[in-house]
Automatic annotation (TrEMBL):
Residues the record lists as binding substrate: A300, T301, T302, G303, R304, A305, R306
Protein family according to the UniProt entry: Belongs to the adenylosuccinate synthetase family.
Protein name per Swiss-Prot or TrEMBL: Adenylosuccinate synthetase
Gene: purA
Residues binding Mg(2+), per UniProt: D14, G41
Length: 425
């Protein structure tokens, strides 16, 4: 019997999960998304082409790999259909190839969930979360509130009536906001997309995944968002509405904790965040702007400018602990190529003390980062093809991080393309 390996982000999302899942997918029989929804934007680049996936697992471009959208995911049928239509135009049809299945128990995002998201954010004004406005929070609220509609419901004869009942409830809530909306077009698109997703096989993800394991096949769970956006352990309330951590892979697919194998924790050589909320190492200055421009730090889903800052080791240690990370993957080292000196936050100054952990309240009392200077490598890393060519300064940075984080760095990514990936260990 095999186990499920997990790959997830250790920061505030956009670490490069899509790229690495694509790189690793030839080693796996099944890639499974287990939480989140189309708030995710996972970018893959190969053969001069670029794809951004929102709901579809990043194993889709590997010929032999099956892809599952697990029960823990929230699915917007309109967005899923659009993603698949766009892939088809680009010559990839995973549905026709029988390479995509949906969990029956995955919840559906309705057009009114998006309206509720937008109405709520509008009301919060300056204190807003900075949601992607994909309806994620309201859909998970209906899931835990036991009102939601699931993929499996679409085949029931009374699906339209169930839909109408939930929409009625949403309209009642919306009437308490000053919020204008017109549902007509969205509703037509929704029902068209529902017919389409009925053509994709529906499975019980718990049996589907466990059958793969029993057959000795290899499974990789693909995280979305990042650990610091986890609804329990992230910078609440500036978080998403799911468990983005390893534990989320168990509930989001239906696997027991003892079925978890390797846990790949992925992080950028610096740090970014998109949306509101605390970010102790943020550089709201020219250095941050340089990171943004060189790293093309603009959201894959919303196009928003990402906030940029230095790497935050207390936050990474916290994420490693929560996830049981067994191997690290460092991304976007090339973005730091031009710096004479880079910095790493090793501790925080907080309430007059020096601490090396994330305190409960980082919203009303912002931790001040204590930074260590590290010599830059001033080398174009994007052209490097073997680990012998890694400059000594970058090797020193890697050794420093491994000592601090106490987990080996297995892969080093030096550019967006599939091929720009070095195996260190
Ligand atoms: P995800 O949400 O974790 O899959 O990450 P995103 O796709 O949102 O953001 C990562 C961005 O960085 C994408 O534009 C990738 O193409 C790009 N990228 C990934 N790895 C590297 C790298 O090593 N170097 C550079 N320069 N870009 C990278
Ligand atoms: P990937 O998978 C970065 C952020 C939003 C907002 C907060 C809540 O590409 O790493 P939501 O839409 O869930 O209501 O937004 O979470 N956020 C992400 N930030 N990458 C993501 O996904 C994100 N998904 C949500 O910006 O601050
Ligand atoms: Mg992303």
């Amino acid at each position: 019997m095999t186990q499920v390996d997990v790959l997830l982000g250790l920061q505030w999302g956009d670490e490069g999960k899509g790229k690495i899942v694509d790189v690793l997918s030839p080693q796996y029989d099944l890639i499974a998304r287990f939480q989140g929804g189309p708030n995710a934007g996972h970018t893959l680049e190969f053969d001069g082409k670029k794809f951004v996936l929102n709901t579809i697992p990043s194993g889709i471009f590997n010929e032999k790999t099956m892809n599952l959208i697990g029960n823990g995911v929230v699915i917007d049928p309109i967005i899923l259909k659009r993603e698949l239509d766009n892939l088809k135009k680009a010559g990839h049809d995973p549905v026709a190839a029988g390479k995509l299945v949906l969990a029956r128990k995955a919840h559906l995002i309705l057009p009114t969930h998006q309206l509720l998201d937008a109405a709520n954010e509008q009301k919060m004004g300056a204190g807003k979360i900075g949601s992607t406005l994909k309806g994620i929070g309201p859909t998970y609220m209906d899931k835990t509130g036991r009102n939601g509609l699931r993929v499996g419901d679409t085949t029931l004869p009374d699906f339209a009536a169930r839909y109408a009942k939930l929409v009625e409830k949403h309209k009642e809530i919306l009437s308490h906001y000053e919020f204008e909306y017109d549902l007509t077009e969205k509703e037509a698109a929704f029902f068209e997309a529902i017919e389409f997703i009925k053509t994709i096989p529906h499975v019980d993800s718990e049996h589907f995944v466990n059958d793969y394991l029993k057959a000795g096949k290899k499974v990789l769970a693909e995280g979305a968002q990042g650990t610091l956006l986890d609804v329990d352990f992230g910078s609440y309330p500036f978080v998403t509405s799911s468990n983005t951590t390893t534990a989320g892979a168990c509930t989001g697919l239906g696997i027991a904790p003892n079925k978890v194998g390797d846990v790949y924790g992925i992080f950028k050589a610096y740090c970014t965040r998109v949306g509101g909320g605390p970010f102790p190492t943020e550089l709201d200055n020219e250095v941050g702007e340089t990171l943004r421009q060189v790293g093309h730090e603009f959201g894959a889903t919303t196009g928003r400018a990402r906030r940029c800052g230095w790497i935050d080791l207390p936050a990474l240690k916290y994420a490693i602990m929560l996830n049981g990370v067994t191997e690290l993957i460092m991304m976007k080292a090339d973005v730091l190529d031009g710096f004479d000196t880079i910095y790493a936050c090793t501790h925080y100054e907080y309430n007059g003390e020096t601490i090396d952990y994330m305190p409960y309240d980082i919203i009303s009392i912002q931790p001040k980062p204590v930074l260590t200077a590290i010599e830059g490598w001033k080398t174009d890393m994007t052209k490097i093809t073997s680990i012998d060519q890694i400059p000594s300064q970058l090797n020193a940075y890697i050794a420093f991080l491994e000592k601090e984080l106490e987990v080996p760095i297995k892969f080093l990514s030096v550019g967006p393309d599939r091929t720009q990936t070095l195996t260190l260990r």
